[in-house]
Write a structure and sequence with these properties.
The protein is of the alpha/beta class and 402 residues long. It has helices at residues 19-28, 47-54, 70-76, 88-96, 102-109, 122-126, 128-139, 165-177, 216-227, 255-265, 310-316, 335-346, 386-397; strands at 5-10, 32-37, 80-86, 114-118, 143-144, 148-151, 157-161, 191-197, 201-204, 207-209, 231-237, 247-252, 271-274, 281-283, 304-306, 324-331, 350-355, 366-373, 378-385.
């Protein structure tokens, strides 16, 4: 089979060196990659590096190999164009249709999905001109990944850092997997909130009540939503997974903290997906010092109190009209019967029901589930990657959005 053809555009920012890692991941996963740097990008990483890593020449000007009409042919033949890093200057040129080099010409001729991964100083990202350019690109169907927060050039820290190349690769992979549907990101303009991981309820400074959730399903939901154009807030409870590119990640520990973060993020959200495994109970008393084991003395029983029912709360009190709420039900027996009862009890629009156990679902890369809907429909999702379940969830959310 023909390899998917990817154009990797690289514009002139210090983060250009990170694009080498993105290029390596794309080529090693079976993609044919043509690197199209700007002249400024070559000040950071030379043409020889791009050619060696991609196995193809890396031209910047439309005047090279003119007989091949590269300023038209490269974009026409691409399955995906990704620009990483995308500087403020590149975003402005792309938004206004300027075409003064090979990369900007390629962007004008491409009819495939286009992904921009911006990287710049915080002030440049937040400038109204940049935000208007980003909004214009998104309206036209491009996926513009939100930059990460972290160390920038010099001693500066803030929003504007290029996301991890491995996570940019995941966005590209999800966009390519959607094929022609990806040319119109169906969650563009939407804000979605996803919870992930498992809460931990402290007993003393070193012990807690927890569960086996890794956060993989919630992170798959967040990555899928980013690839489909959404603004994503990911409320992550004790997960060790890397932050998904483009998602605003809020770290929490306990069920009470997760409730506070979800309610805050849900205030302007179009959809809330509660994929986190939230502890039903927490210790009634927190012991400030480590509980000691004493010879001949049995430990005192641990009294528990209920945690807030976040899913039921946000389902009953929608933060905005038409907000779609999705819950998850982890069951060990009578899976569908318990799931249907939970759907009626919680009042959410969709409930993803799956069977869990020591070696089922929690921590695994694959899952199978049945998505129950408040209207009585049921959608089985066969055993497979959790990203497939994630796309099914968003497919079911879309027609229910206001």
């Amino acid at each position: 089979m023909d390899k998917p053809k990817v154009v990797l555009g690289v514009s002139g920012g210090i983060a250009a060196y990170k694009a080498c890692e993105l290029l390596r991941r794309l080529t090693e996963s079976g993609h044919e990659v043509r690197v199209v740097p700007t002249a400024s990008a070559l000040h950071f990483v030379g043409e020889a590096t791009w050619a060696a890593l991609s196995g193809q020449s890396a031209a910047t000007e439309v005047w090279e190999s003119v007989h091949e009409v590269p300023h038209v042919r490269i974009g026409q033949g691409a399955d995906l164009v990704v620009v990483a890093p995308a500087t403020a200057d590149m975003l402005a040129k792309a938004a206004h249709g300027l075409a003064d080099d090979l990369l900007t010409n390629t962007l004008l001729t491409a009819r495939c999905p286009v992904v921009f991964a911006p990287a710049m100083h915080t002030e440049m990202w937040e400038h109204p001109a940049t935000q208007e350019n980003v909004a214009a690109l998104r309206r036209r169907g491009a996926v513009v990944i939100e930059p990460a927060v972290g160390r920038l050039t010099g001693v500066d820290t803030g929003k504007g850092r290029l996301p991890d190349p491995a996570e940019i690769f995941e966005v590209c992979r999800r966009v390519l997997a959607r094929g022609e549907r990806a040319t119109t990101p169906d969650l563009a303009g939407r804000h979605v909130v996803v919870s992930a991981g498992g809460t931990r309820e402290p007993l003393d400074p070193v012990r807690f009540l927890g569960n086996r959730s890794s956060g993989k399903q919630g992170y798959a939901l967040a990555r899928a939503a980013v690839a489909r154009g959404a603004r994503v807030t990911l409320v992550s409870a004790n997960s060790e997974l890397p932050d998904p590119a483009g998602a605003d990640v809020v770290k929490v520990g306990t069920a009470v903290q997760l409730r506070e973060a979800v309610l805050k993020a849900a205030a302007d959200a179009d959809a809330v997906v509660m994929a986190a495994a939230v502890a039903d109970f927490r210790p009634a008393r927190y012991v400030t010092g480590k509980i000691k084991k004493r010879d001949g003395v049995e430990p005192e029983p641990i009294a528990l109190v209920r945690n807030p029912d976040i899913l039921a709360e946000i389902s009953a009190e929608r933060a905005r009209p038409g907000q779609v709420v999705v819950g998850f039900a982890a069951e060990t027996d009578d899976v569908l019967a318990n799931g249907r009862a939970k759907l009626a009890r919680k009042g959410c629009d969709l409930l993803v029901v799956n069977e869990v156990g020591e070696r089922k679902t929690f921590g695994a890369a694959e899952s199978e589930a049945v998505v129950l809907a408040a209207d009585g429909t049921e959608t089985p999702v066969p055993y497979g990657p959790k990203e497939a379940l994630a796309d099914t969830v968003w497919d079911l959310v879309l027609p229910r959005l206001a």
